[in-house]
Amino acid sequence: MTRAGWVTHGVEAGCTGALKRFETIVVGCGGMGSSIAYHLSRRGAKTLVLERFKLNHENGSSHGRTRIIRTAYFEDPRYVRLAKRAFQLWSALEKETGRRLLEVTGGLMIGKPNASAVVGSLRSAREYSLPHSLLGAREVAERFPAFAPSDSESALYEPNAGILFPDRCIEAHKEMAEEEGTKFRFGERVTGWEAGRSLVTVSTEKDSYLAEKVIFAAGPWNASLLPDLRLPLECERQVLFWFRPSSRAELFNSRRMPIFFWEVGRGRYF
Question: Got the DSSP string for 228-264?
Fold first, then answer.
């Protein structure tokens, strides 16, 4: 497959020259790419990871202080099995590295009785027998004083939801993969690739590499790296904030304030 306008290299038997060869090349080292690299390393695969930016950069969607993790997905119950497995894997990685990567805080899905955050979460919780409870507005305010829903709102509480520390997670995956021999190249942008009869050539601004397989985990850059697929990707700038309470800080610590989705309108959440 030729990529018009890109740097490409033919791969023919006996014509590979001195190109460095790997079983797998992973393009991107964010939350997905670093995890893929780690699990490939556990299987003994000779792997190279190419990242156009530095480790834990601010140009993708994997940086920041925390990210929510939960199992009672209101978006679709099919996520539940994946989420349950993710909890197991994060726990295993914590034990392997001795790092604190996940904190269980519980989770509130708040909204009107017909809100998708409440109805969808309840559907997932019941379908997969997940621990949960339904709370009225008064119960929410009594148990979690930082919240003051209106009388017409209710909540589903999931005790096992919590937060991940994404920078730590990426670093842990990278370090463990490196211990197994995985190579990482930061500040090295992929400029093109070409599939030959048995190998794929991946070209960057600095070098070219050969691999039996290539995994693209480049987030929004996947669209330009895989133009023939015409991926329906739309990139949005989503700004995240972490606030320091100005008073009564004890109400906002992770023991008293669970993660939450508060649906205030159709498709609008806090």
Answer: GG-------------PPPSS-GGGGSTTTS-EEEEEE
pTM of the model: 0.89
Class of domain 20-63+166-229: alpha beta
Integer-rounded Cα radius of gyration of the chain: 22
Sequence-separated (6 or more) residues with CB below 8 Å from residue 132: 72, 121, 122, 125, 156, 157, 158, 159
What is the domain partition of the chain in residue ranges? 20-63+166-229, 67-162+253-269
Cα distance between residue 227 and residue 192, in whole Å? 11
CB 205 within 8 A of CB 191: yes
pLDDT tens digits, one per residue of 12-34: 333 445 679 999 999 999 999 99
To the question of domain 67-162+253-269 being in CATH 3.30.9.10, the answer is: yes
* Confidence bin at 239 (pLDDT 50/70/90): confident
